[in-house]
């Protein structure tokens, strides 16, 4: 150890002296280029082209010179929170919009923009591999790092089961991927580019904020932040050695950085500037841009070939192959390499011969698929339309027909074919070699996965684990992290604890006179609760056996089942004698009857606090497994058939399944939480199973008849083995482990054992201290920090601290500090410090100082709301900050469960936590759920009514979503990004059409409209209103037309009546004879209608009437001369006017040709009617 420390110190000294000072020595020794500035010292020569900064600013991407000049925008509408990187040889840049969940690319000039990936939540790192032409990104929620080609193809997961990875960087020449792990212990991790050879480079006690890579010196740079907010910059080589750390003030909010030559470029969120500092010595930063930017910079990169070098390294293996693995898989090590490159099945070598391309098998005559074919990277799968099923050969589609023979026994379904009856499997599953059973995510074995099964495409899936578990090398089983688990069980006269391997059994407590058959524990207060059937009482004790307390000794008859609600802090128990289930608080208060109706002999009981459900077994005349909400609502029977004496019941929180046993039949069964997908695990292997417990991959069973404990595989029921043989009569079981009861807040009791700040993560308490203290070696207490360290005469203590490096674990950091003491305690007692303040020594006198989480003058301290002030570090998007006195905690939002640092979506549909109508189906979504009425019903989903047969078609225009494979048409329609979660209203499902770059909504039944903004009733009312408007318009038009016709008819009637009036009003006796000959008639026509004005005194009245009468045809004037060119004349001399009894006789439309008194003329030029003197008329 001594020589290792000496060697590390020598390497650090050599790197700092030979490289650092030389490269920071000044302009005299530096290379002057790119504006005449010394960008680096030593043997450095300028390389064209001139470097420039690429930075995210506001909602765009800009570039500017290293001196802040020539700033211009090259891309817009990219998002305000982005991660940047570039591919210089391809001339492209890539950015990840962390809010929208998209990864895009464009040319370095902003042209050729393309979206590569959609709907990816919590992107925390982005890096470009410029040799393998791929893009890497990290996902903090899933704990994964993914890759894809720079054109968006061949996406795959490189690393899994990581602890909140972020700040991904890559060195393609060394074939390394580096990232920050923001888990319980912050660290820098490393793996090769294929995801193998994973290792920890460095562990750091402080929180790591950002990571950058220096390709020139092959070093990693990071920024760390301590408890007091102090920041420092550190660097090390790729192996975690030769560490250099120096204090450097930063604002860690949204900090990003990049390395170029001798400088580190950083974003400053508050000052809205880009600053650079010397990467060897730090010091005061220099502002790149003199003026404040309009927005805080989001990310920054220096674009230059130095930052993306291509190192030609000779390889002892075949030319053109990977120098680490000796073969070419997907990509060769360099474009200039020659020789054979081998590709995996499903890929072919590119034309350039240096990388592998996916083969589209479906383009080759459907590759044997009888109907449909879907291509995926490296493979393909066959599909069938509705009404057909895929046969076990995974190529042939067969029309669905029921089997003829009854002898065919299939796990899922049976269809009849020309060759006979065959078994088929559900979608995405495959038939096992036995020809009867299925395997896959939707099959009974869940693809062999102990917890989560994720389908990649039909016939292929992967297993994943819940937070806190690690996937085992077999790729199927999940193992819990943390301390080892043990089994707690009731043994009639005592309670025992035993290791999971069946060894080291010991008694926790004894009760020789009793009959203890029910037991459970509280992970928060570390107490065990048990029911004594013989003594008729319920007690509790500490898990170490040093404490015991009576809760109930009256009002009990036969308590046989007991369960602790570790989240809502309640105790539930069954009483077979009283036929009831009761509950109380954990201290025995607020006791009440929970259920006492329609229940006979309740025995086993189990809780699912996240689902708000209580499960129990009833061994009465109607045996059943039932459940109810913790609010006593929605009680229902889960299983009621095939039961005789259902005894024990438990919930597996990892796989979200229910397990129970039948005491009389000797059967152990499993099903989903709603009773579906029921499956027999064991039959007649255990004589009389009394209770069951599940954890990790093991199912524990207590045998009431054989007085034994058994364990078997929780999925298959196989591998049965005996655990313990010297038990008396094992009864109730419980597995003790921090992950066995997820969601427990262990900080609720005595602050989790922490002296100051407690944080509950995955069932464990993590302690930390306020800014003026450091955590002690025991991980719980806090030691006060002196304002100045006490130095020995030779300065040894100061040198030890100054020279200590982060990977030196020889001495705990806390031991470098001494506890601060006040020499004169009377000074503290004389002060009136607030309860949230402490007495400290400053400048030789005692003063009151508010502790961390409070602010004030010491005598009055008020709580700091870290949530509102933005000081909280609730980095998970599914969590929200909750302020407390002196601190805060992160709590998962509604619709999610977890400890606030790891939040998982609650499947309300699977856990039956929804309020959908009985005639509706539940559709789970992230953080919520949707209800959709089944076929034949209509409504909102929360209320569904049967459709009436005579209902008009427009009352049900919304149609159910087509249930198709998520891989079909994956290039046509996609799910909307998180930014459009509220685009579709009324629980509509949002879709994005990349071809049209538009969004659309598929509305739930009962709603319609562009954004599902109308309910059926509202739509009907709008349609009615539109119909009413159209009807009213039609009626108005009809009325106007009718009035018009009436007016025309009235005019016609009036005119016709007037003609008759002139024709018939004078008697025929008063009409004079008019002598005319046939030869005297001359027909004269004009181009305009003839108009006559007659002014007379009506014989039918006393008034004078002016009549304007138009003849319907050309007027025929008797005895007219054709030589008259002046018009048509009328004269009173040629017409005999006889007046008798003041009567005037006028011949209708008959006039004379000689004019003596009046001339009536209609001028064709202007259609004016005038009365003129006949003598003034032209002759």
UniProtKB/TrEMBL annotation:
SS bond partners: 984-1001, 1003-1012
Alphabetical keyword list: Disulfide bond, EGF-like domain, Glycoprotein, Membrane, Repeat, Signal, Transmembrane, Transmembrane helix
Cellular compartments per GO CC: plasma membrane
Span of the signal peptide: 1-24
LDL-receptor class B repeat residues: 91-132, 133-174, 526-568, 569-611, 612-655, 656-698
A single GO BP: positive regulation of MAPK cascade
Entries under InterPro entries matching the protein: 6-blade_b-propeller_TolB-like, Cueball_EGF_LRP_Nidogen, EGF, EGF-like_Ca-bd_dom, EGF-type_Asp/Asn_hydroxyl_site, EGF_Ca-bd_CS, Growth_fac_rcpt_cys_sf, LDLR_classB_rpt
Domain annotation EGF-like: ranges: 824-862, 863-904, 905-945, 972-1013
Transmembrane stretches, start-end: 1033-1056
GO molecular function, one term: growth factor activity
SMART domains named among the record's database cross-references: EGF, EGF_CA, LY
Protein name as catalogued: EGF-like domain-containing protein
The organism of origin for this protein: Culter alburnus (Topmouth culter)
């Amino acid at each position: 150890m001594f020589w290792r420390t000496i060697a590390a110190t020598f390497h650090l000294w050599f790197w700092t002296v030979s490289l650092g000072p030389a490269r920071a020595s000044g302009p005299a020794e530096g290379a002057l280029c790119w504006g005449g500035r010394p960008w680096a010292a030593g043997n450095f020569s300028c390389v064209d082209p001139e470097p420039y900064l690429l930075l995210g600013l506001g909602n765009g991407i800009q570039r500017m010179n290293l001196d802040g000049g020539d700033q211009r925008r090259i891309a817009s509408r990219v998002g305000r929170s982005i991660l940047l990187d570039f591919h210089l040889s391809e001339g492209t840049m890539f950015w990840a919009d962390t809010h929208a969940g998209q990864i895009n690319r464009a040319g370095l000039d902003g042209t050729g923009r393309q979206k590569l990936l959609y709907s990816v939540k919590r992107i925390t790192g982005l890096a470009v591999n410029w040799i393998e032409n791929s893009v890497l990104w990290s996902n903090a929620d899933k704990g994964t790092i993914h890759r894809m080609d720079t054109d968006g193809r061949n996406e795959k997961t490189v690393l899994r089961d990581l602890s909140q990875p972020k700040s991904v960087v890559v060195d393609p020449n060394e074939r390394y991927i580096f990232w920050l792990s923001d888990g319980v212990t912050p660290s820098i991790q490393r793996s090769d580019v294929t995801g193998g050879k994973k290792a920890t480079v460095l562990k750091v006690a402080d929180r790591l904020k950002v990571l950058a890579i220096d390709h020139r010196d092959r070093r990693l740079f990071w920024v760390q932040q301590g408890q007091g907010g102090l920041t420092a910059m550190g660097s090390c080589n790729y192996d975690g050695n030769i560490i250099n750390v120096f204090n450097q003030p930063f604002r860690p909010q949204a900090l990003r950085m990049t390395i170029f030559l001798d400088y580190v470029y950083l974003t400053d969120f508050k000052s809205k500037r880009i600053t650079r500092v010397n990467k060897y010595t730090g010091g005061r930063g220099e502002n790149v841009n003199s003026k404040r930017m309009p927005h805080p910079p989001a990310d920054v990169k220096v674009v230059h070939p130095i930052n993306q070098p291509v190192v030609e390294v000779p390889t002892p293996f075949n030319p053109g192959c990977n120098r680490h693995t000796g073969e070419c898989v997907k990509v060769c090590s360099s474009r200039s390499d020659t020789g054979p490159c081998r590709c995996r099945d499903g890929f072919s070598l590119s034309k350039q011969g240096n990388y592998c391309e996916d083969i589209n098998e479906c383009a080759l005559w459907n590759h044997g698929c009888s109907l449909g074919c879907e291509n995926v990277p490296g493979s393909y799968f066959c599909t069938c339309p509705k009404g057909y099923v895929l046969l076990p050969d995974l190529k042939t589609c067969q029309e669905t027909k029921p089997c003829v023979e009854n002898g065919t026994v299939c796990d899922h379904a049976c269809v009849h074919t020309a060759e006979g009856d065959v078994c088929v499997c559900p979608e995405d599953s495959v038939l096992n070699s036995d020809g009867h059973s299925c395997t896959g995510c939707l099959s009974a074995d869940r693809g062999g996965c102990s917890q989560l099964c994720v389908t990649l495409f039909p016939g292929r899936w992967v297993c994943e684990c819940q937070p806190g578990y690690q996937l085992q090398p077999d790729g199927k089983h999940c193992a819990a992290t943390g301390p080892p688990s043990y089994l707690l069980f009731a043994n009639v006269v005592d309670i025992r604890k035993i290791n999971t391997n069946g060894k080291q059994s010991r008694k926790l407590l004894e009760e020789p006179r009793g009959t203890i058959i029910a037991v459970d524990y509280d992970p928060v207060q570390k107490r065990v609760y048990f029911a004594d059937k013989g003594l008729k009482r319920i007690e509790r004790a500490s898990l170490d056996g040093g404490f015991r307390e009576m809760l109930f000794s009256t009002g009990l008859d036969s308590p046989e089942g007991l369960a602790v609600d570790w989240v809502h802090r309640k105790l539930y128990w069954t009483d077979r004698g009283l036929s009831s289930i009761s509950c109380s608080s954990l201290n025995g208060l607020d006791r009440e009857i929970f259920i006492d109706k329609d229940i006979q002999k309740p025995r086993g009981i189990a809780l699912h606090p996240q689902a708000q459900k209580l499960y129990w077994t009833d061994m009465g005349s109607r045996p059943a497994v039932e459940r109810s909400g913790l609010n006593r609502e929605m009680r229902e029977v889960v299983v009621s058939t095939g039961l005789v004496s259902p005894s024990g019941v438990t919930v597996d929180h990892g796989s979200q399944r229910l397990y129970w046993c039948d005491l009389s039949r000797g059967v152990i069964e499993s099903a989903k939480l709603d009773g579906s997908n029921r499956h027999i695990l064991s039959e007649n292997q255990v004589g009389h199973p009394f209770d069951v417990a599940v954890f990790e991959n093991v199912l524990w069973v207590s045998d009431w008849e054989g007085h034994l404990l058994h364990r078997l595989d929780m999925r298959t029921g196989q591998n049965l083995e005996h655990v313990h043989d010297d038990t008396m009569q094992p009864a109730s079981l419980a597995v003790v482990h921090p992950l066995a009861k997820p969601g427990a807040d262990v900080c609720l009791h005595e602050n989790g054992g922490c002296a100051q700040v407690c944080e509950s993560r995955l069932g464990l308490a993590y302690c930390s201290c306020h800014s003026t203290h450091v955590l002690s070696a025991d991980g719980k207490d806090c030691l006060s920090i002196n304002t100045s360290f006490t130095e020995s005469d030779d300065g040894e203590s100061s040198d030890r601290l100054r020279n200590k490096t982060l990977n030196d674990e020889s001495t705990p950091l806390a031991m470098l500090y001494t506890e601060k003491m006040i020499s004169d305690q009377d000074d503290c007692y004389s002060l009136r410090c607030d309860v949230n303040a402490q007495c400290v020594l400053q400048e030789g006198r005692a003063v009151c100082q508010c502790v961390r989480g409070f602010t004030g003058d010491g005598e009055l301290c008020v709580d700091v709301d870290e949530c509102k002030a933005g000081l909280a570090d609730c980095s998970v998007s599914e969590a929200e900050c909750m302020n407390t006195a002196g601190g805060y905690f992160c709590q998962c939002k509604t619709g999610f469960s977890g400890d606030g640092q790891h939040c998982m979506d609650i499947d309300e549909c699977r856990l039956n936590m929804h309020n959908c109508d009985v005639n509706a189906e539940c559709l789970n979504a992230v953080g919520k759920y949707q209800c959709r009425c089944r076929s034949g019903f209509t409504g909102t989903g929360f209320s569904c009514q049967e459709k009436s047969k005579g209902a008009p078609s427009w009352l049900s225009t919304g149609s159910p979503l087509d249930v198709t494979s998520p891989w079909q048409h994956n290039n046509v329609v996609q799910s909307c990004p998180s930014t459009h979660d509220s685009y579709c209203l009324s629980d509509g499902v949002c879709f994005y059409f990349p071809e049209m770059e538009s969004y659309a909504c598929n509305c739930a039944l009962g709603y319609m409209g562009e954004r599902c903004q109308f309910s059926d009733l509202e739509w009907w009312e709008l349609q009615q209103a539109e119909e009413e408007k159209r009807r009213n318009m039609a009626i108005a038009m009809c009325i106007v037309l009718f009035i018009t016709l009436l007016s025309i008819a009235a005019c016609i009637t009036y005119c016709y009546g007037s003609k008759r009036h002139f024709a018939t009003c004078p008697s025929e006796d008063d009409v004079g004879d008019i002598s005319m000959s046939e030869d005297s008639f001359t027909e004269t026509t004009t181009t305009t209608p003839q108009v006559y004005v007659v002014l007379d005194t009506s014989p039918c009245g006393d008034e004078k009437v002016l009549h304007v009468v138009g003849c319907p045809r050309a007027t025929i004037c008797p005895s007219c001369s054709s030589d008259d060119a002046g018009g048509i004349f009328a004269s009173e001399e040629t017409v005999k006017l006889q007046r008798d009894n003041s009567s005037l006789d006028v011949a209708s439309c008959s006039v004379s040709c000689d004019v003596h008194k009046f001339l009536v003329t209609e001028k064709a030029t202007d259609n004016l009617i005038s009365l003129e003197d006949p003598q003034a008329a032209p002759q």
